[in-house]
């Protein structure tokens, strides 16, 4: 385990079984998780040496992790929990590899594109027959209870990013935040943690208690995923994230934009990026316009020129740099 921290950054820890003798790998993997994330009783599922790697980011309250590993079973039974209390709520984001999740109330089958949130001091067993790649977020139980209004998490809650519903979209926005932060740890740690707590608050409380940052993050993810839809509008975005259109407008007003203006800006920035991409050099301008949600090439050309002072064709020829 190697710490790596820059001033103002989240504390970073890394672990890999590469170069470790096969007989010591499980023990050291358990030790790393106990120090950096959650204490676990870990067993391999075959005779092959364990392969595992983990990157951790520690914020004042939250912990993020990116985990990869070969086939294994991880468990926290009642005896283990008494000996190794962790006092955290954990969110597991499945990226690769299906898994089973046994808990006191039954079991779940989790697949990539899903997330589960669970109290780590309630017994559970998770198994990955073909290995795993996932992200993990933990929050102290007391902090979670403050967000949830005192309601304990008595059973796992499963979210599916491909299904409708504001809760699924809030969890997707949280997954995107964790992923982008793990990819670029130098980002503002205070803002990152505040945004994550806002989204966790929306998930924990299950109502409209957020101050706006959580809804804004979810709205931005929803918009980004649907820029190619020419029918995307503020009313659709508001309904998707679980607020009124008027409330959505108030949330965006704090950023200096209306929802419509933000949507148009993202369409134009996406188009500018595509036009400057050498791999898209043979893509017709009309196709670029359509991929960015413009149903009319003429309208696209007009608003593009108004925003950037040049035509889409000239922008491609000049190779405009991307916006900082």
TrEMBL record:
The keyword Transcription applies. PROSITE patterns: HTH_ARAC_FAMILY_1, HTH_ARAC_FAMILY_2. It comes from the Bacteria. It holds the Pfam family HTH_18. The keyword S-adenosyl-L-methionine does not apply. SMART domains: HTH_ARAC. Gene3D superfamilies: Homeodomain-like. Keywords: DNA-binding, Transcription, Transcription regulation. Residues 217-318 form the HTH araC/xylS-type domain. Signal peptide: none annotated. PANTHER family: ARAC SUBFAMILY, HTH-TYPE TRANSCRIPTIONAL ACTIVATOR RHAS-RELATED. This is Helix-turn-helix domain-containing protein.
């Amino acid at each position: 385990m190697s710490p790596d921290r820059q001033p103002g950054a989240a504390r970073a820890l890394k672990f890999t079984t590469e170069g470790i003798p096969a007989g010591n790998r499980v023990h050291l993997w358990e030790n790393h998780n106990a120090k950096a994330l959650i204490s676990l009783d870990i067993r391999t599922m075959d005779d092959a040496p364990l392969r595992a790697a983990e990157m951790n980011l520690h914020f004042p309250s939250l912990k993020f992790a990116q985990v990869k590993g070969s086939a294994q079973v991880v468990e926290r039974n009642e005896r283990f929990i008494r000996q190794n209390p962790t006092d955290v709520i954990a969110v597991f984001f499945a990226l690769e590899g299906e898994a089973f999740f046994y808990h006191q109330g039954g079991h779940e089958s989790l697949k990539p594109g899903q997330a589960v949130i669970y109290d780590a001091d309630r017994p559970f067993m998770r198994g990955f027959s073909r290995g795993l790649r996932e992200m993990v977020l933990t929050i102290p139980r007391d902090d979670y209870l403050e967000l949830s209004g005192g309601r304990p998490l008595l059973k796992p809650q499963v979210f599916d990013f491909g299904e409708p519903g504001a809760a699924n979209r809030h969890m997707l926005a949280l997954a995107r935040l964790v992923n982008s932060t793990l990819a670029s740890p130098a980002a503002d740690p205070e803002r990152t943690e505040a945004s994550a707590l806002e989204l966790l608050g929306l998930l924990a409380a299950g109502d409209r208690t957020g101050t706006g940052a959580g809804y804004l993050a979810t709205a931005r993810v929803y918009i980004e995923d649907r820029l190619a839809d020419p029918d995307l509008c503020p009313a659709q975005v508001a309904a998707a994230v679980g607020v009124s259109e008027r409330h959505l407008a108030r949330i965006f007003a704090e950023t200096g934009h209306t929802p419509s203006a933000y949507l148009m800006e993202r369409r134009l920035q996406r188009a500018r990026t595509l036009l400057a991409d050498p791999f898209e050099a043979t893509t017709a301008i009309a196709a670029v316009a359509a991929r960015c949600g413009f149903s009319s090439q003429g309208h696209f050309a007009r608003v593009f020129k108004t925003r950037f002072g040049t035509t889409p064709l000239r922008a491609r020829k000049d190779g405009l740099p991307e916006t900082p």
